[in-house]
Records
---
Amino acid sequence: MIETKAISNEELLLQFEAKIEAEQKIEPLDWMPDEYRNHLIRQISQHAHSEVIGMQPEGNWITRAPSLRSKKILLAKIQDEGGHGLYLYSAAETLGVSRDQYIQWLHEGKAKYSSVFNSPALNWADMGAIGWLVDGAAITNQVSLQRTSYGPYSRAMVRICKEESFHQRQGYEIMWKMMEGTKDQQEMAQDALNRWWWPALMMFGPHDSDSPRTGNAMKWKIKRETNDYLREKFINKTIPQAELIGLKVPDANLILLEDGTYKHGDINWDDFWKNVNGNGPCNEQRLDHHIKAHKEGSWVRETAYVSGKNK
Amino acid sequence: MEAKLKYYLQIADNALILSHRLSENCSKGPFLEEDLANTNVALDLIGIAESIYGEVAKQENNGRSGDDIVYRRKESEFLNVILVEMPNEDFAHIMVRQFFTDVFQLNLFSELRNSKDEFLMGIAHKSLKEVMYHLKRSSEWMYRFGQGTDEAKERVQKAINKYWKYTHEFFLENTIDTEMLKAGIGSDLSIIKKNWQAKVDEIFEMSNLSIPDTDFSIEGGKNGLHSENLGYILTEMQFLPSKYPDAIW
């Protein structure tokens, strides 16, 4: 007679952690602690929402793109972001929550998206600054997420990173072209950098000392690097790029250290939390836009469903 | 400008202005997949337009670039039909406008494959593949509207009734069309009209949609006389090059 024995949660946890320790990916049907699942539900859906809400500030300039080439690039980039949203919703759905539910949580304010998209896009150089800085900051984070322990998330990241690095170069190209251009264009480029620099640094999240969720996320290898480490990596990479084309990073307290890296001035975390908590310049506008489109599309989704059944 | 280049512009301007309207809709789709499809079509149309403007600039050979033709041209010099200027209303209006234009472009490019003009023949072959996909998508939506919910049926029929009067302009033969047809460069609009009508009838019949019983027609765009909408489109589109004429983007 074969004896069956129920495996306790403690044992399952040990097996789960051993797998992570051995750098094996956790897959949707594998056992995982609730805390791990919930962390991923929050993180991946937030990431998906960020891609989709992020279509708006750039969408603001499509109709005013100053050349056919720039219009095509911008449209294709925004389309890529929407595509990233799709991969990420699919990855997030493997955790047992539907896309409809995720969208409902977004609309109810229960799910967040990256606060950086609550900044307005005010001149054409913002299209450069967003690609260069926002996508640049995102990719710094996402490169490390390619090694995240959850399989579907990790695979989505591999695909996304390829496109994001392209976006970053396209953004930098816009800035470079503007800095090569007229005085008005140079002013627009500097103005865009001034406005997007700090929000880009805030994208990495609070300092490690103030980041409540880093602990388990690091232990379970959802997160592979800390907020501060990634932020510094981004700063050290980006400042020489700014200087190369004659732009000045808006940080009066920036110090170049002996080893060639930079120490940045204090980040205004009051601004950050104000924005996270719904009081940034465009929070209401971005969410209203998404809710309106979703609501106006409800009859379309419904007729697609009904006609599919009638076929 | 010689007639052949104006003929090119009629085709390019239809693609450009419709793509502009579609690009306005980016991030406003009924669901993400459809949002991406909308942008895909917009991108294809810009691609078609860009190739043609580049060719016009090349053949003009007077220092004007393809972008100059788009960004520094007067409203009355745009030669698109009025239908493509119509504002985005609901998804039914967007799709009906698209469907009528897709059927036209499919038949136009099919005919232009036989053009004596090498450039037009080439662009027709290349664009036809893209336009076939566009039409597949817009036809399927006609079916989903017509065979779907009552609300969808009502919305799509309203859009058809509204836009029908703008479709006749596709087939309105102006002096440029006549000259190009004679030269073996342009296509025969009477053949295109017949094929267009047959395709529309086929899809509408399958989708249980009807064509309004009226011959009323609104036209003028092909000859540079537009609706009030185009001025706003161009004001937005041409904003940066107009405000900063010396800038290179």
Note: The mean pLDDT of chain B is 97.
---
Amino acid sequence: METIRTSRRDFIKLSVAAGGGLVLGFNWSDTEAAGIALLPAGASDAVNFNSYLAISPDDIVTIFSPNPELGQNIKTSFPMIVAEELEADWSKVYVVQAALDTKKFERQLTGGSGAIPHSWERLRKAGATAKYLLIEAAAKRWGVTSATLVAENGRVWDKANNRSLTFGELASEASQISLPAEVKLKDRKDFKIIGKPIRNVDNQAMLTGKPLYGLDFYRKGMLTAMIQRPRSFGMKLKSFDGTAAKAVPGIVDVIQFKNNVAVIGKNTWSIIKARKLLKIEYEKEAAIESTPDHDALFRKLLDAKESTVRRKDGDVDTAFSGAAKVIKREYQCPFLPHNPMEPMNFFAHVRPDGVELVGPSQTPDMARNEVAKLLGIAPDRITLELTRLGGGFGRRLKADYVVEAAELSSLVKAPVKVIWTREDDMGGGSYRPAVRYRFEAALDKDGNLIGYKLRGVGINSGNPTREHNFPSGAVDHLLIDSIEHQSPITTGAWRAPITNFLAFAEQAFLDEVAVEAKKDPVQFRLDLLDRAKKSPVGEIRYDIDRMKTVIQLAAEKAQWGKKKNVAQGFSVYFSHRSYVAQVAEVEIKGSKPAVKRIIAASDCGIVVNKSGAEQQVRGGIVDGMGHAFFGNLTFKDGAAEQLNFNSFRLIRFKEVPEIDVHFVDNGIDPTGLGEPALPPTGGAIANALFKATGKRLYNQPFNKQPDLEGVSLGRSI
Amino acid sequence: MASYQLQINGKEYRTEADPDTPLLWVLRDNLGLLGTKYGCGIAQCGACTVHLNGLAVRSCTLPVSTVGTKKVTTIEGLSADGTHPVQQAWDEVDVPQCGYCQAGQIMTAAALLAKNPKPSSQEIDTAMNGNLCRCGTYHRIQEAIVLASSKISK
């Protein structure tokens, strides 16, 4: 059993809330679909135990979930952890999305698969401390020592005397007890909720069409706005004529701000129609780039003399000049839009006495700070309520659309909801950067990897390498460097930033090197890890044993190398503190290869929610596969050429393979799972297709590669 | 602007809209029925799926003037309290991730099962291929449709 010191910052004890003292969420009352009972009657008389937790006299346990929920299932997983330590009756737990509150919560954001590792101990302490107070209150009431009492399923029990009190009956008295200096956390073997498949707490609301998302937020007197931004990156607004647009019934105003023209009105369809009547002239303000320019640029940069060295071990020049064999390959990916199903939107009401913001954001704190800066006011004059997010994938880490809403509300002095169309979303930037890699490997006469070089060149990519990842540490002579091209085309974090493509390139390359070294691809990786363990070269930032374990588990579950008439491809990657290995299986159907199955082994430490975790892995694989095959955003004269799902292809229902999901059970504190399953997928599939066809894939999207013609996807083929 | 009398979820609604206004925006902006979602506006993603006389249609490209007296069912009207077998199956299989596309997925699946209570896996593939899920919940959707089919056939 762990003993954890409590801290005052986490446990500001509040007095019994006056009726209605809890934050009850949004005011949806202007819509017919209003009236989601966020909390049952009675819960408003609850006692707040800490930032996360309140208990009402009728035993309703309200758990506040602070982090933005975008499908990573945090709104269910966080409360499970609190409820576990509290010994709550899960059927009486109600979960409420907390508004932004930097006094109560730290790291109230969704990104980097970091919420669970950051909050694991905090959440456990929140539950354990409340449990302590409830037990002490019962001991006091009964006049017994607390050591003889236990909490179970929403009650404190005095088993010797066969009596119990509910948490609700004890809540008020518990709030009078002094906070402990330290609390005891449960042993993992005693977990009753953590590790179980618990259904999404928003299922009922989602499955009956309740207004949960930002786009569903309506407020009486609210105006809706759409914004025409420059279509081409590198262009700026020169002049506009909004006369015809403004004449459309239902349009309230057409105004310019920065390089944009906003059409503001009372209903969405009028705005969509009016916007088409805008006459806007643009002029060049920076480089106007097209995809063929980038292709040429990448080749030039890969041979450039100047670069930023990211890691250097040994002496690569000597290793390569003395090598028995040198393998050199290049890999390229295009830009990608994030395409969450719910396009960008946000509500803002800028009033003289303060600012109200409501909507979907992965980074509410940053969004508030940017709005504060725009308006020149203190952040504490701004409230921000989080809706559920209809996907994010990194796009909502940026606050551009929040700032737009605040700016327009400030200009028109009315509550405004800004909404983007799908075309705005896909054409509007913040893309996964386009990148090209060159990998080089030097083998000695026995097929040992003695030298390794990687150069990454990218467009607004930052550092497109992860220089301390595998196989760094396992190779004596290694050089990793990069060059970044600055472009007006905006980029941002896209689910598993950088590694979403780097992992494919690296794992496809290592597969090719293994074949050239005449070694089994799985054994080749294990040998490198043994080498790194025995005599590590430089710094190693991954856990060698954990990586080996997922490799072995995936190989075992897939019966690696033992199946007949199945071509298998292997891949493994460490990202966001978790380890995932995958085996892809390709079968020949007729004369054509079909991607039929993917077997995944993940190590994210303790699995918090079995249902959520399995789907994170499966969904990450579907995402990785879909974008590897189809994702392609190209540019002509600075403008994106694909603007909607008729030209930008997402993976569809019948194209997904069977996916088997396995977890390593090691009891280590949990790490993230929103991203780590995605990076290995492209490599596993490409390596399996090589086994099946003898042809290698170097660039994404796969479906544009001539060697891939005729490949089919899907479990039912 | 014209005036329309719409039969939605067994109720009659009167509303004013331009004749070319897609049903989606009438539902959302005029009537506050917000379960039907906007995803693409060009009938490519299926997030806006509703039933028109029992058939699954894309409300984002369906002008309100063409609806007439046909019966519209939205996710809010699929059942009074979320107990339609498809909704129950979706919950039991724990399908949603972000959940944004799921109303459309459910409406497509419910229309399929109403016509064909025991669809083959190919028939499910064909019916569901027009509904995008960016989170990748397709496996669970398949599983939930099979479960709902067994509930209906009982």
Note: Chain B has a mean pLDDT of 97.
